[in-house]
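Quick note —
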Amino acid sequence: MKTPGFGEALRFWLKLGFISFGGPAGQIAIMHRELVEERRWISERRFLHALNYCMVLPGPEAQQLATYLGWLMHRTWGGIVAGVLFVLPSLVILIALSALYLAWGQQPLVAGLFYGIKPAVTAIVLHAAWRIGSRVLHNASLWAIAVAAFVAIFVFALPFPLIVALAAAAGWIGARLHPAHFATGAAAHAAGTPQGAAAPALIDDDTPPPPHARFSVPRLAAVVLVGLVLWALPFGLLAAWQGVQGTLAQMAWFFTKAALLTFGGAYAVLPYVYEGAVVQHGWLTPAQMIDGLALGETTPGPLIMVVAFVGFVGGFAKAVLGPDALYLGGALAALVVTWFTFLPSFLFILGGAPFVESTRGALHFTAPLTAITAAVVGVIVNLALFFGWHVLWPAGFAGRFEWPAAVIAAAAAFALLRLKAGVLPVIGACAGAGWLVTQWWPLP
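Predicted structure written out below.
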């Protein structure tokens, strides 16, 4: 079997950037189908080993997985191209949609559409929890970790990094007490994934790591140094231009923290972004945050690209380039936020992937990753409740209950979970239902 050339891989990553709908679960499924089942560029176990590493990292696991696989096949530039093309189409689309939203979002037609889209988003997040949980929670130990994670964040409001650390410790201990419970990968039993014999892959189970995938301390130090320069230089320019307390510098700092301190992918990072962008800095309103998530669900690319919407709306509201360039200022802020959000993801992969390649088959390394993936399921369920609260009681529990939105959310959940409908058709149908409802039901 011939190894794909760089040009062939580039065309695939570009295609993936335009078709990667459905959030992290859907995007991982697309990559699995294309790269493992159809093209056979990488084996099932190598794919799952990479996925487990990406799921323990802070940041968008699907984009990191694309970067990892691109790097494994075509070295550093392969990883950079795969990661950038996974993000670029959605960035351009979201900047355009953000501008249209601010210009026309208060029109009755658009407001009605979003009334139906918001409960659909709640159902989509719940569906994501089910999708990941069905791949991960194969025994009582992993179920217990997922439930404990939900209780920890919902009842006790423990910070997610602490939940991750506790889950990793549980996996490390569990691998010694019940090793069989932690021996499988994060997605080893994905629906439709063949577990039997398969044709040999280009990068198969027993394929030795290529020279560039062998860990070395000097190479890791070089990646860290380059990463620090790529972070410090633009941050220093923003701080020198508008001051450390300026909106753009504050966005750069906040989204750097979001990229480094939050784990579990987009669904887990969104509560942190909400707390900082809405409550702490006031860059946008709670309703705008949910609208941004709805736009993110309707575009390709990682769901965490909702941060581009947050940046655009914040840059627009704070007039970062002055009152005469509101839309240009929003676009600049979206670019700044995207850079500082995704830069750490590239560094985690380019710096850490060689070490991960050396740990294949080591249960003491993979068991904590499996446990963390189980904990993420509980956190995502908490996020679904978080959005449901704001959709069904937009004015708080003392306000009106939006029973039409509840009906739309239930119908969306039924379509996703039982009818196996796609995300885009569900969003489209719910948008239409929302517009019809608002013809007789006043908007909140």
